[in-house]
Design brief:
The protein has seven helices and seven strands; from the N terminus they run βαααββααβαβαββ. With 252 residues, the chain is of the alpha+beta class. α1 packs across α3 and α2 crosses α3. The C terminus is likely disordered.
């Protein structure tokens, strides 16, 4: 589920151009996860797992720690089996991509990343919701991409810390992979949990093809499914500035 509330300015102040996209190592996965967790602090999907009827007695710190642990596991899983990228100082922006032919469902990755132990961190309802989430995402991606599923790039998460927005970091993290996908002739895929962000993704060539809902909560949580065909780049994404469409606090 990729969905930053991010400003993707073209870096007119020159700051973004001075930074380089780099791969996140396993040793730094906790620092990268902290940035991603902060970016998703108020995201509806992130809250969906920790704000449940059976966590009403939990403190905010308890809920934050579970949210952070989810991000630690997912970042580490991408360090092991996918592609975890960052740009900017102190992991200012982070993107988690799953390359063609790769996934984080293997037993080794699940064990090493801690994903197999998340059920012990989540409440009973939170665990049910996490399973619902993972199953729905897997099923939808398979149905939407069909025969292209195994040969596509999957943008799982992307987010920028609030203080680092507007530097063009998110653009760099997306361009870094979409250029490679274009060269390889591969499709790209993502889920957006913020209704304002599909307009941004469209500037990178993504198109909304479906809307799905998580339904175990008091109200449905919607995600937009978006795909990008090779070479599908809207010329406007190369403009100097792309307007900020995000929330006050990021969701990536």
């Amino acid at each position: 589920m990729a969905d930053p509330s991010f400003a993707t300015g073209g870096g007119s102040n020159g700051l973004a151009q001075a930074e380089q996209v780099r791969v996140i190592s396993r040793d730094e996965h906790e620092a990268a996860a902290a940035s991603l967790a902060e970016a998703f602090r108020y995201d509806e999907v992130a809250q969906y797992f920790v704000k449940t009827p059976d966590t009403e007695t939990w403190t905010l710190d308890q809920k934050w720690e579970v949210h952070l642990q989810i991000m630690r596991c997912i970042v580490l899983a991408h360090c092991i089996s996918g592609l975890a990228l960052t740009v900017g100082p102190n992991h200012a922006a982070v993107a988690l991509w799953m390359p063609p032919g790769k996934n984080m469902d293997g037993q080794k990755t699940m064990l090493l990343s801690g994903l197999s132990e998340l059920n012990k961190q989540l409440s009973k309802e939170g665990n049910c919701r996490f399973i619902e989430f993972m199953q729905l995402l897997h099923q939808t991606k398979t149905e939407v991409l069909g025969k292209y599923d195994e040969n596509s790039w999957y943008l799982v998460y992307i987010g920028t810390r609030k203080e680092a927005r507007g530097q063009g970091y998110a653009r760099m993290l997306i361009d870094h992979v979409t250029r490679q996908a274009d060269a390889e002739g591969h499709m790209c895929y993502l889920e957006s949990s913020d209704g304002k962000n599909p307009a941004i993704y469209q500037r990178f060539g993504f198109t909304t093809v479906q809307n799905i809902k998580l339904t175990r909560g008091s109200k449905p949580v919607e995600l937009d499914i978006m795909v990008r065909h090779p070479g599908s780049r809207d010329a406007s994404c190369d403009a100097r500035t792309i307007a900020h469409h995000g929330q006050t606090a990021e969701t990536a």
